[in-house]
Design goal:
heterodimer; A: 168 residues; alpha/beta; TIM Barrel; eight-stranded mixed beta sheet; globular; B: 550 residues; alpha+beta; Sulfite Reductase Hemoprotein, domain 2; Sulfite Reductase Hemoprotein, domain 1; six-stranded mixed beta sheet; five-stranded antiparallel beta sheet; 21 strands
Chain lengths: 168, 550
């Protein structure tokens, strides 16, 4: 598995294996001895089995509604949000809702078509780890996470927009 | 006018460094074309039919003379010595080299300019009335709100990859709407409620393009301080639920229509309820801070120069005509608002040379406190000219090419770059404008016709706003041949209306005749007081059809 970028720019080994959605009618195939991320609706449907299991997290696709996880978020060790195409911006709203609306505290990961030039937006919206697409140069991530030293708006990283910081 | 502080300067510099890095990676093959595409678009860079095109942002149309001079220098050093004023109050360069763009952006940043979010599926430049701050009937100056929206929307981390482009316009005048807010994704009309508090009537889901729509009202009154949280709620609903499967159905107007305006409003209100009291809620101090940049210039205490002007007009008929058509009433006695028309026959509408940019800068310094405004009709406004200096100013305009006294007449044509420059266009638009301007070259006849908006777009993306022209012309492609579809009755102000298609399209050479026949019908049917639009609304489309297709 490719390495993972952390929000501080450090690069660490990936511990989590993304389990694809099974074909309809087929059972979820969870590999053994791994920490896994399963489709969020399957976790919800089987939550008695998975709740409290520190080795099972979930992933949401860009068209999924994060509201379905609202009451469970902090029972999950990791939530990943899939970007099927980097230009699909729904994942940014999903991340902010998980953090700011539902109070999710644990690791939030961007997966899928994750490229360098979107990393800082992801960071501002509450993602703290990023699974960069393998053909991209992971050594350039630290720079891409820090193109800007501040932003105009409030987001997940700061609830003070610039107009309030200017006033203080 | 707004002036950068250290925060703005820092982010502007960081943006240039970021795009330099991105351009280098693109040229080194580390970024695929489709990966570089949104990055360069959000820095204003298109790749067009003949060359890249750079769209430079002019926030809500305001420019200082130092910025005009820098633009002139950039067109000389990096381009072919001319620029183009767009229908979004921006400026375009038609021939820059891709590898020079980071340097151009660095030169722009030095004079507090940029090309941020002038293209791409993000929040674009917020536009407003070109007479903001100097007209007497506005509730308050709309420009501080535009600047507040500019800052909020700049590099917004959640809304950089929307389903489609997103345009906001603000209007503060009760009688006129020069910003055409009802054909924007969000149109904000500044209003006062019954308690006398300032706020916005919020229209959402207007637009032109292939599905033209007038925006419905989704909130009658939004208190001033709630502006940004409410915009954030609208954008979040759009970002989550706007269609992404079909580019032509991805604008917010399609979502508003699908959910119905009431259904859409309900979703926005539900989202807003969660964030309305967050720290993103504006404060009176934050608004006052921005308003302080838009205070009045040092006007002299003057009386209206009524007698002087009357004498000058009597002695000089051409000056009289120009005054009547290109000069508007100012809120301050003794001052006037002057529109310089960039519509001289023989020059594409909105095109200016480097020398002309410098001349405009000189005029701004000499006559109008060093500032100008760019209009969505592709003209330039000197907003604060002393009445007793109008004649002296006017005498200089003719030789410069800005004196054509055709403002708001049939030949003050709004026109996109069309097939001569634009890769999207189905047909050329500039030669059509030119042929019509040549056909109607008699100013007395134009004045007799009164105000007529003639808008030309080279394709259904509608950069020339053809849907809302009283007469609209749309270039279409029929089996590789260029044809032109005509619509009538469009309007962009408070009475915003989408024009109705007249019938089958015409060849380019026929267009001046077609327009002449339409004008004929108007002249024959009108009553003394009626404008073209009034007559059209009274008699309907049939008399025009009968005449044109006879």
């Amino acid at each position: 598995m490719p390495d993972i970028i952390f929000r501080d720019g450090s690069i660490r080994q990936n511990q989590w294996f993304v389990v694809s959605r099974p074909e309809s009618g087929e059972a979820l195939d969870i590999p053994e001895q791994k920490r896994v991320l399963i489709p969020a609706d399957l976790w919800i449907a089987n939550r008695e089995q998975f709740a409290g299991n520190e080795n099972v997290g979930v992933w949401l696709d860009s068209h999924d509604e994060p509201e379905v996880l609202a009451e469970y978020v902090n029972q999950l060790p990791l939530i990943a949000v899939n970007f099927p195409k980097f230009s699909d911006g729904r994942g940014y709203s999903i991340a902010r809702l998980l953090r700011e609306r539902f109070g999710y505290k644990n690791e939030l990961r961007a997966i899928g078509d994750v490229l360098l030039d979107q990393l800082q937006f992801m960071k501002r919206c509450g993602f703290d780890t990023y699974e960069l697409r393998p053909d991209k140069d992971i050594r350039k991530a630290a720079r891409a996470l820090n193109f800007f030293s501040q932003g105009y708006q409030a987001a997940t990283d700061t609830d003070l927009p610039l107009f309030r910081r200017r006033a203080s | 006018m707004y002036v950068y502080d250290e925060h703005d300067r820092q982010m502007a510099a960081e943006r240039v460094a970021q795009f330099r890095d991105q351009t280098e990676r693109a040229l080194a093959g580390e970024l695929a074309e489709d990966e570089f595409l949104p990055l360069r678009l959000q820095n204003g860079l298109y790749v067009q039919r003949l060359a890249p095109m750079l769209r430079i942002c002019v926030p809500y149309g305001m420019l200082r003379s130092v910025q005009l001079r820098r633009l002139a220098r950039i067109t000389r050093d990096y381009d072919k010595g001319y620029a183009h004023f767009t229908t979004r109050q921006n400026v375009q360069l038609n021939w820059p080299n891709l590898e020079d763009v980071p340097d151009i952006l660095a030169e722009l940043a030095e004079v507090e300019m940029h090309a941020n979010q002038t293209s791409g599926n993000c929040i674009r430049n917020t536009t407003t009335d070109q007479f903001a701050g100097v007209q007497s009937d506005e509730l308050t100056d709309p420009r501080p709100y535009c600047e507040i929206i500019r800052q909020w929307s700049t590099f917004h981390p959640e809304f950089a990859y929307l389903p489609r482009k997103f345009k906001v316009a603000v209007n503060a005048s009760e009688k006129t709407d020069r910003a055409a807010i009802q054909v924007h994704d969000i149109g904000l009309q500044i209003v006062r409620n019954d308690a006398g508090e300032l706020g916005f009537r919020v229209h959402v889901g207007g637009g032109l393009g292939r599905t033209p729509m007038v925006a419905p009202v989704i909130r009658e009154f939004l208190p001033e301080l709630d502006l940004l949280t409410y915009l954030e709620a609208v954008l979040r609903v759009y970002n989550r639920y706007g269609r992404r499967d079909n580019k032509f159905k991805a604008r917010i107007k399609i979502l508003v229509k699908a959910l119905t305006p009431a259904g859409f409003a309900e979703k926005v209100e539900a989202e807003w309820a969660h964030i309305k009291d967050s720290p993103s809620r504006l404060t009176p101090e934050a608004i006052a801070r921005i308003q302080a940049y838009f205070t009045e210039p040092a006007y002299a205490a003057l009386d209206n120069a009524t007698d002087l002007l009357a004498r000058q007009r009597f002695e000089n008929r051409a000056f009289d005509q120009w005054l009547q058509h290109n000069v508007d009433t100012h809120k301050k006695p003794g001052y006037a608002i002057v529109s310089l028309t960039m519509k001289k026959t023989g020059t594409p509408p909105g095109d200016v040379t480097d020398r002309q940019l410098e001349q405009i800068a000189d005029l701004a310094d000499e006559y109008s406190f060093g500032e100008v405004r760019v209009t969505h009709q592709q003209n330039v406004v000197l907003a604060d000219v002393r009445q007793d200096r109008l004649l002296e100013l006017w005498e200089q305009l003719g030789p410069m090419g800005f004196g054509t006294a055709n403002l708001n007449t049939l030949t003050d044509i709004i026109c996109c770059p069309g097939g001569d420059f634009c890769a999207l266009a189905n047909a050329k638009s500039i030669p059509v404008a030119d042929a019509i301007q040549r056909r109607f070259d008699n100013l007395d006849f134009l004045y007799d016709l009164g105000e007529i908006d003639l808008n030309i777009s080279g394709c259904m993306n509608a950069c020339g706003h053809h849907h809302v022209g009283n007469i609209g012309v749309l270039g279409v492609d029929k089996k590789g041949q260029e044809f032109y579809q005509v619509s009538l009755g469009g309007a962009s102000q408070h009475d915003a209306t989408i024009g109705k298609i007249l019938g089958p399209s015409f060849a380019r050479d026929d267009m001046p005749d077609v327009i002449a026949k339409i004008i004929d019908v108007y002249v024959n049917k009108r009553t003394d007081e009626e404008s073209f639009l009034d007559t059209y609304r009274r008699v309907g489309i049939d008399p025009f059809k009968e005449r044109v297709y006879a």
